[in-house]
């Protein structure tokens, strides 16, 4: 058996057998799911809470707009003054009091509606009240001005722009959402992977230094072999952990939602809001269908291949740097000053991906960052679902691989010298000198 | 080929610092070769060059008459001064892993490991983790791992540190046995009494330069001062003054049964031991007459001070 595979095997087995690794593997999805469950459960409880809102309508225009629902009971007050009404509401412990002044003229209604409450009211309550009053007053205003509401409703026209590119591929808003989800997930996955397992590689290099086994090992194998073996072995352990997380997480999620009857889809995040807006028109069966079409509209083959290539090269690029840092220092506390230059481009990539790619996947900023080797893996992975010309992908990948080879060479140099250096924390200047040894 | 290892004019610089300056040594086959020198002299760098951990800037190394190549890794067993083992790995597993890295087959490595573990009476450690063992115990494992693949050349850097006297003796005997079985040993240490005890050849490195090398006895001959240690019961009390006027005399320290006169007498180049002895026989009862042989320790200190 050759050295590299021996080293990979050892790294993998030690990682996988490690107790804290095992505990993390099992516990992380449990904690994650528990947290999600609690959050969703609480927000549902919050939504389900019964509210009583008292309404004192002195104008008499909008009383009809307030029909009690399951969640909100409207308590219409009549024949009391505002001061009395406030006392009543406070005594009853209602959520709040909505007060509408006398309205003489519809042009002057602004400022004649107030909401009184003990605590500041939630945004959604206020906006729902505003909606109701607005609608009611608009209707009455129209009636007063002699405009027929029926005619207006009948003459409304709804437009859904159908999108198609020059080569004839159709897409829709929902496509963009699906693309965003795919690109975002891929980019974010890479980001997480680099941070978690890059650190693990670094720690394992430091461990070899502090246990002083390193000189014994490198009298048998080349430092580059040891470094690559460590990176590959740790990554394989990482992939194992990730796969277990996904499977375990999926199973747990299904079980929990079945037992507690919590609908995770109801937990509304901004992305889901976007999704909901995009899918507003079609009915339920159309929704599923359009999701599938959107999925098939993705450049799937391109996506998978590009994902593998960019993920692997991007990960190797960063993990070789982590290995070099591990070799340069004696203990984990000394790593801080070297971590920043690694984390900066990584975080920058994620921000560019989140803000710029969503806004305009083919804009100048996104395009430039998808070529810069340290940000390209994340940004390009986010862009690809939107269709990136093959030449751009190839150029970006070549740049990335070139840089990756350069960093591995550079990291190997530092590694070779660093693993035999003890005691002093090196400066950047010394690291540069090591390369020349 | 009578020399197993030849190092020719090796130089190595780290930035502005010269770690080795044109160093050459030859290690005869089947010898125990002492590589000596003060701290920071360049011994470890030289050993690393031989192990292909560090590449020299100039010069070359021949092992068995062949320039060092990758496959020579198998022919060398190296016990570094900075040594350790993976703490959370089991003893047996770890030894097997390290043996396989030296190119051994797993089954063969297992067989030999069992044999060694039995010989050193550590068989029941196989499934223990290194962190459960004491330092001396871990050192034993390291020794076994170093010699397991039966290399032609063994390099020990301070092999006895961390051992109690009993185990140090055990390891010393094993080193001698390996030598008798045909291995050549390079032995780097600061403990001069073990140099005295074990080494046939020595080389002394000081401030990146080799300042001395050769067969230990030849070196001693080279450093001898023609000094003799005598014990005598003088016939008359003026002997000491007489001797002092004839030779260069210093008081000596050793044990005798009587209250003899004890002196170190340094002879000049043209005087022989016999001249001194025949002179002394007429002056009293001689109880002690020994040539003072310079110890490795003396040679070390003298050479380092003079350079």
From TrEMBL, chain A:
Domain spans labelled ABC-2 type transporter transmembrane: 19-412
Entry protein name: ABC transporter permease
Topology in the lipid bilayer: Multi-pass membrane protein
Keyword set includes Disulfide bond: no
Keywords for the protein's UniProt record, in alphabetical order: Membrane, Transmembrane, Transmembrane helix
Residues making up the signal peptide according to the UniProt record: none
InterPro entries: ABC2_TM
SUPFAM superfamilies tied to this protein: Periplasmic binding protein-like II (SSF53850)
TM annotation in the entry: 21-42, 180-201, 242-265, 295-318, 338-358, 365-384, 390-412
Cell compartments where the protein resides: Membrane
Organism field: Olleya sediminilitoris
A Pfam family annotated for this UniProt entry: ABC2_membrane_3
TrEMBL record, chain B:
Coiled coil: none
Domain ABC transporter: 5-232
UniProt keyword Nucleotide-binding present: yes
Molecular function in Gene Ontology: ATP binding
Keyword 4Fe-4S in record: no
InterPro entries given in the database record: AAA+_ATPase (IPR003593), ABC_transporter-like_ATP-bd (IPR003439), ABC_transporter-like_CS (IPR017871), ABC_transporter_ATP-binding (IPR050763), DrrA1/2-like_C (IPR025302), P-loop_NTPase (IPR027417)
SMART domains listed in its UniProt record: AAA
Entry-linked Pfam families: ABC_tran, DrrA1-3_C
Record keywords, A-Z: ATP-binding, Nodulation, Nucleotide-binding, Transport
PROSITE patterns reported for this sequence: ABC_TRANSPORTER_1, ABC_TRANSPORTER_2
Organism domain of life: Bacteria
Database matches in Gene3D superfamilies: P-loop containing nucleotide triphosphate hydrolases (3.40.50.300)
PANTHER family assigned: ABC TRANSPORTER ATP-BINDING PROTEIN, ABC TRANSPORTER ATP-BINDING PROTEIN NATA
Entry's family note: Belongs to the ABC transporter superfamily.
Name of the protein described by the UniProt record: ATP-binding cassette domain-containing protein
Organism: Olleya sediminilitoris
């Amino acid at each position: 058996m050759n050295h590299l595979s021996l080293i990979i095997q050892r790294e993998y087995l030690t990682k996988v057998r490690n107790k804290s690794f095992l505990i993390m593997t099992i516990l992380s999805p449990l904690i994650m799911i528990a947290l999600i469950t609690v959050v969703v459960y609480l927000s549902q409880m919050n939504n389900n809470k019964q509210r009583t809102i008292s309404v004192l309508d002195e104008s008499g225009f909008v009383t009809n707009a307030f029909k009690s629902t399951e969640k909100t009971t409207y308590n219409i007050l009549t024949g009391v003054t505002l001061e009395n009404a406030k006392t009543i509401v406070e005594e009853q412990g209602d959520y709040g009091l909505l007060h509408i002044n006398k309205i003489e003229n519809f042009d002057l209604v602004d400022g004649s509606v107030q909401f009184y409450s003990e605590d500041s009211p939630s945004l959604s309550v206020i906006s729902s009240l505003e909606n109701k009053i607005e609608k009611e007053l608009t209707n009455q205003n129209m009636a007063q001005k002699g405009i027929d509401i029926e005619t207006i409703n009948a003459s409304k026209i709804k437009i859904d722009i159908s999108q198609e590119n020059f080569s004839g591929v159709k897409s829709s808003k929902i496509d963009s959402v699906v693309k965003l989800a795919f690109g975002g997930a891929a980019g974010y996955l890479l980001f997480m992977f680099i941070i978690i397992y890059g650190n693990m590689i670094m720690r394992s290099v430091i461990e070899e230094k502090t246990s002083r086994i390193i000189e014994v090992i490198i009298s048998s194998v080349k430092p580059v072999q040891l470094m690559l073996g460590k990176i590959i072995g740790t990554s394989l352990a990482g992939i194992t952990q990730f796969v277990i997380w996904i499977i375990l997480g999926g199973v747990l999620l299904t079980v929990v939602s079945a037992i507690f009857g919590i609908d995770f889809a109801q937990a509304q995040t901004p992305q889901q809001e976007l999704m909901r807006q995009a899918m507003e028109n079609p009915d339920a069966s159309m929704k599923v269908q359009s999701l599938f079409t959107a999925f098939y509209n993705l450049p799937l083959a391109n996506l998978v291949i590009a994902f593998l290539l960019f993920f692997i090269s991007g990960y190797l690029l960063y993990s070789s740097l982590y290995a070099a840092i591990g070799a340069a220092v004696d203990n984990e506390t000394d790593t801080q000053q070297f971590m920043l230059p690694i984390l900066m481009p990584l975080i920058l990539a994620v921000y560019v991906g989140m803000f710029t790619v969503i806004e305009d996947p083919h804009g100048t900023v996104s395009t430039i960052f998808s070529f810069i080797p340290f940000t390209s893996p994340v940004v390009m992975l986010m862009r690809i679902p939107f269709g990136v010309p093959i030449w751009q992908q190839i150029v970006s990948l070549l740049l990335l691989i070139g840089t990756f080879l350069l960093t591995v060479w550079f990291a190997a140099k530092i590694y070779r010298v660093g693993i035999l250096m003890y005691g002093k924390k090196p400066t950047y200047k010394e690291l540069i000198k090591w390369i020349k040894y | 080929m009578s020399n197993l290892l030849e190092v020719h004019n090796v130089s190595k610089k780290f930035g502005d610092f010269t770690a080795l300056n044109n160093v050459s040594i030859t290690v005869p086959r089947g010898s125990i070769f002492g590589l000596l020198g003060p701290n920071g002299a360049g011994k470890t760098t030289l050993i690393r060059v031989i192990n292909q951990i560090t590449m020299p800037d100039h010069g070359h190394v021949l092992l068995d008459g062949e320039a060092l190549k990758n496959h020579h890794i198998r022919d060398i067993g190296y016990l570094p001064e900075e040594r350790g083992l993976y703490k959370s790995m089991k003893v047996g597993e770890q030894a097997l892993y390290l043996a396989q890295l030296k190119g051994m087959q797993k089954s063969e490595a297992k067989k030999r490991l069992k044999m060694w573990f039995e010989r050193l009476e550590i068989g029941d450690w196989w499934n223990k983790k290194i962190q459960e063992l004491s330092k001396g115990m871990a050192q034993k494992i390291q020794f076994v791992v170093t010699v397991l693949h039966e290399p032609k050349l063994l390099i020990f850097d301070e092999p006895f540190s961390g051992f109690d006297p009993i185990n140090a003796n055990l390891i010393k005997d094993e080193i001698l046995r390996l030598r008798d079985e045909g291995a050549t040993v390079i032995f780097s240490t600061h403990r001069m009494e073990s140099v005295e005890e074990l080494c046939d050849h020595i080389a002394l490195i000081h401030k990146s330069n080799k300042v001395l090398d050769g067969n230990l006895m030849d070196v001693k001959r080279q450093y001898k001062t023609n000094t003799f240690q005598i014990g005598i019961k003088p016939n008359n009390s003026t002997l000491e003054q007489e001797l002092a006027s004839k030779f260069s005399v210093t008081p000596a320290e050793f044990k005798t049964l009587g209250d003899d006169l004890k002196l170190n007498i340094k002879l000049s180049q043209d005087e022989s031991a016999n001249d001194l002895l025949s002179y002394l026989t007429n002056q009293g009862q001689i109880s002690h007459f020994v040539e003072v042989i310079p110890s490795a320790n003396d040679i070390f200190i003298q050479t380092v001070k003079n350079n």
